[in-house]
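Note to self: user wants both folds in one dump. Writing first protein now.
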Amino acid sequence: MQWIPKPIPETELVDALEQSLGVPQLIAKLLVQRNITSFETAKDFFRPSLSALHDPFLMKDMELAVKRIQKAITAQERIMIYGDYDVDGTTSVALLFSYLKTYLDEILCYIPDRYTEGYGISQKGIDTAKEKKISLIIALDCGIKAVKWVDYATDLGIDFIICDHHTPGAHLPAAVAVLDPKRSDCSYPFDELCGCGIGFKLIQALQHHFGQPLEALTPFLDLVATAIAADIVPMIGENRHLTYFGLEQLRMHPRPGFQFFLKTLKRQLSVSDLVFIIAPRINAAGRMDHGLNAVSLLTATTLEEALPIARSIEFFNTERRSTDERITEEALQQIVLQEAENKATTVVYHPAWHKGVVGIVASRLIEKYYRPTVVLTASGDVLAGSVRSVSGFNVYDALVGCEASLLQFGGHKYAAGLTLEPEQLEAFKSAFEAQVKATITPEQQIPSQRYDLEILFSEISPKIFRIMHQMEPFGPQNMRPVFVTRNCKDSGGTRLVGKDQNHLKLEMVDTDGVVFSGIGFGLGEKLLRIKGQEFFDVLYTLEENEFNGTVSLQLKVKDIVFKSDQTS
């Protein structure tokens, strides 16, 4: 693993911030690294506020969207809320349905079947809308490239409003309104919202239109925070404000659909819990059964209504875990059999692999072979799959270069989905390998970890940790601070822990003679060299450790590098 230092912040900026805020220098450095360089920006950072949200009408077509929804309410039209089957999509549908149900009697929620329809707008969805006498479809977290299907719906007399955050294609769909900050002609000040974030901006605009207070939308922010965390969008700007209050809502008044999954949580809920506890379970519905189960869970108004759905989703999640572990093992074997260990890319395929877990499998393969990865399975008459990238490499751009061998694709810098004809598989493999080989840098081919600062153990204190805790919620562009301390040695108490004895419980001392403890998961193989009194550098974050009722600070160790390996 490469350790990459962040730029050292300017001393003048650090000193000025340290003085104006009255915080330790270490905190001032961390803030300047996050472009927080004044009292005002620090106040905005540490004191999130709903009043800091941008005017939703700054978004292109928002006025048109509100007018069309108002028309639907006035005429009591039947509308369909259409969303993707992942966390972002299902939370978006749940949010808009929960909001509009007080104004409309006839609302149909629609999530496409992952296996028979695939991602995005489908003919089946539009045909269902026609059959149900729907006159307006509001699409969330999808639709920005659905030019053909919007035209098809229009011919059937059905209007479309699209709320998406993905990169548009060459032409926008001819919808009544297209809400997407990534439109080239949209001047909205923040373009890193997730799909559910766009949905929230829509209900924020409607709330203003109806003359209702913004604060009344707080109960919906748990859905927005969950989507922001799951979609791994930057934790800055509006996303930070929305997540802050969403976490607050989840801690104090979790909706019935979340209560089952949070009942055993013994600590204060964090973004990590959304990513690792809530999101996989919501995703499991769409991966293993149907995404509408997730919508039903998230729109349940009582615990009695939510519990049976939550239990079934928990079962699906357990099934998902065993399925992705099995497929990962099969994919690793395939790479070896194909003698593809040393390629610039991974592309694996099996017709029987479960479509719902190929994205997870792609991420697991990158842990073994660190390179852009595609996992494919059969989906009807075509192949469908998920693409995952490595740090710094834009896999979406690479797919653009493979367009000739693909039926369709869409996604982000680090994750995408695609379909292709079976006979195009080898052509795609070659094109993808060539594209990646030509554009990836040597640095992007090695796992890396950026760190904030080099420090001594003496600089760590409960006060520092308390202030760092106030820097949450953490996420992309505001990650949990990572530190390096150099020239450490075992102080005598380092040992193996864990069921399989593959984790390290560290007791180490730095060059100032300060002793600190830490935990290093999966680092057990380093024990002998540490006990041999070799000097080492340690890369870590800070966390609280509770043991026998006593709370103390410890290092959560990400990596250890021995000094002798650096000089040899």
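First done. Writing the second protein, which came from a different request thread.
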Amino acid sequence: MNKEIGPVGSCGFSNGMVAAGHPLEVEAGLDILRVGGNAVDAAITAAFVADLAEPAMCGLGAHGVMSIYWAETGKTTVIDFYDVAPATASTSMFRTAPGMSSPEKTGALGYPSVENDEQFYGHKSVMVPSQVAGLFSAYKLFASLPLTTLMGPSITLAREGVPVDEIMARYIQDTKHLWNRYPEMESTFGKNIGDFVVRNDLAKTLELIANEGEDVFYRGAIAERIVQDMYDNGGILSAEDLDNYRPLVYESDQYTYRDITYVTGGNVTLVEALNILENFEISASGHQTLETVHLMIESMKLSWADTLAHVGDPRGNDSPWETLISKDYAIERASIIDPEKSSSFPNFGNPWILENKDGRNSNKTPIDDSGKISGHTTKVVVIDRDNNVVSLITSLGTYFGSQVIVPETGILLNNSMHRLDPRPGYLNSIMPGKGMQRLTSSVIAFNNDVPISALAGSLSIFLGGMGIHPLVNMVDFDMGIHEAINSLRFHPAGEEIWVDSRMDIDLLEGLSNMGHKLVLKKSSYGNTSFGNHVGLSFTKKKSLMSGGMDVLHNNWLKGF
């Protein structure tokens, strides 16, 4: 008799597991596994359901990344469906206005704010929506069930509605002050806890996509509606932008941390941080001791400074990729860590030297003392009965993205333009076709080429959440996946070090005495200061599956 469980840290399953940001996503994905679908089928289904269950995080107008391990071939494919700027985008489309916006916005990657917050909200903030293209790429490569089957649950939920829970209510409350400018947002999402959000227009759109495929979104009737709305409201997204978009699909490189290998879905920051940390035997100093936490913070700070200085759009050729992920460069970076005191920020290196391109050292790096980043994502992790593994992340940018719902479609569009620099002459300045840095991670970890775990989570994961902490906890301190995810976290935000308010007072005092500028972040339900993560893993005998999830959110996991 199959058992089905959905509590914290569920374990002991052999036929499949799903972990995601909402119970409805998990149930929909698990239903697909039950009828014989594979991990990609289940992930696609859960991702479309997430558009209804977590509308503040994701939608048809979103972007993301997907790592897929296929057991039959032993290979891992990355589908990078990050969005890109429209062909007419430029720094002249915005007027910078330092100091006029909220601290959250002025602190994002150290970029200045722009007048009227146009880089964050409204039609000019929209990049080419790419989620549909990404999910269809996965579908064409790996799916086994009809698209109408996979999209059926999301269509039903759009028509019947999804109740507003505590988490969604919080995101609504945090965003609704903007909705006098976006009346369709108010009419769609202006609800209280327990109310149902019904999206009939989106149901029709989903049904159209299910029956006609991605072309209707990028080149057909839906594309026409998106472009018309842009034209009517001062946006620059064109029919050509939609028609020309293609995800990046490639076989992933594998990286090593001690005795495991892993893939990241393109996150260079995580690789460098782990490479630096590998130079220290933190297992000997102990879990969350002063020495261990200090070394982890310093490794993250150095990697984050390098990211801000040197990492751009991987579609371009303007970053020293090979050096940033190399062990030799990590040794050099580790050598400057003082075991007794905090380093200054930004303390970025010059990886161009090791590539014999000294003249290309970044001399106009967009770093200020904040170094903060905004953004929120959702996630899906699946393992099926054949041990295929998927780690998927999608995002609209900040809560509810641009706040723009395309009329008659129900499509909520991203606000990814805020992740590019509005000033000319910088590495990540706004340019036609420019994409953002890859700062999220769709991680799959391996031991002797056999998958042992998969992790995904929301922003902050590039350093402070799902990325470095769970992997370090599992590898260096032999934790199970649930304990590894929920261990107290910390990460650098420029000069500031965000730390979990539950951290031991003696440890906090020790870090402060070392010169770390600590900012306590309260661990409360719905707090996204340290990301929001789920994961699945195999038991040591590789025969059964287990899972873990951040308990401070509406995450869920289930297996059978």
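Dump finished. Worth passing along: Residues 1-8, 100-107, 459-466 have pLDDT under 50 and may be disordered.
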